[in-house]
């Protein structure tokens, strides 16, 4: 229910630094300045829905995103619902399911070291895999090395 064009658009979530997640959206095309949105999410089917505790707001004070901490994703499907109201009237709700591991932005590899031997004109480069909460095997990562002459 709710008036057409009031539902949020362009809903996107990103997980970064292993356990932080930001979700953002654009207000609906017909949303007025007094429209307010509320985000609820369930990290898995077994858990209860909870409302966002740390909203991102636009210049009108409307909620346009949420910041989450301590997110764990072990191959979970999360459920998101954004609803709201304006002047006491309901707006169209928006629902989305997201596989959390698909939205993780990985950290760079850790402890990168370069050792060069001038006599043999050879260098060895080593590193440790990025931090992640869901990848258990290091063989899952592929790396690309770009070497620039300066």
From TrEMBL:
Q: How does it sit in the membrane?
A: Single-pass type I membrane protein
Q: Does the keyword Thylakoid apply?
A: no
Q: Where are the transmembrane segments?
A: none
| Secretion signal span | none
Q: Where in the cell is it found?
A: Membrane
What is one cellular component GO term in this UniProt entry? external side of plasma membrane
User: What's in the keyword line of the UniProt record?
Assistant: Glycoprotein, Membrane, Receptor, Signal, Transmembrane, Transmembrane helix
For this UniProt entry, the molecular function terms from Gene Ontology, in alphabetical order, are: cytokine receptor activity
The family database entries (PROSITE patterns) matched by this protein are listed as: HEMATOPO_REC_S_F2
Type I cytokine receptor cytokine-binding domain ranges (all copies): 11-98
Protein name per the record: CSF2R factor
**Organism of this sequence:** Dasyornis broadbenti (rufous bristle-bird)
């Amino acid at each position: 229910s709710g008036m057409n064009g009031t539902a949020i658009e362009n809903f996107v979530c990103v997980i970064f630094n292993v356990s932080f997640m930001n979700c953002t959206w654009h207000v609906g095309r017909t949303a007025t300045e007094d429209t307010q949105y509320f985000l609820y999410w369930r990290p898995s089917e077994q858990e209860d829905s909870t409302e966002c505790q740390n909203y991102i707001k636009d210049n009108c004070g409307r909620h346009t995103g949420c910041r989450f901490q301590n997110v764990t994703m072990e191959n979970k499907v999360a459920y998101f619902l954004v609803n709201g109201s304006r002047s006491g009237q309901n707006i169209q709700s928006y629902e989305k399911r997201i596989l959390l591991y698909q939205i993780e932005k990985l950290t760079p590899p850790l402890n990168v070291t370069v050792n060069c031997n001038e006599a043999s004109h050879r260098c060895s480069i080593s590193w440790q895999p990025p931090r992640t909460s869901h990848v258990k095997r290091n063989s899952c990562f592929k790396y690309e090395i770009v070497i620039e002459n300066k």
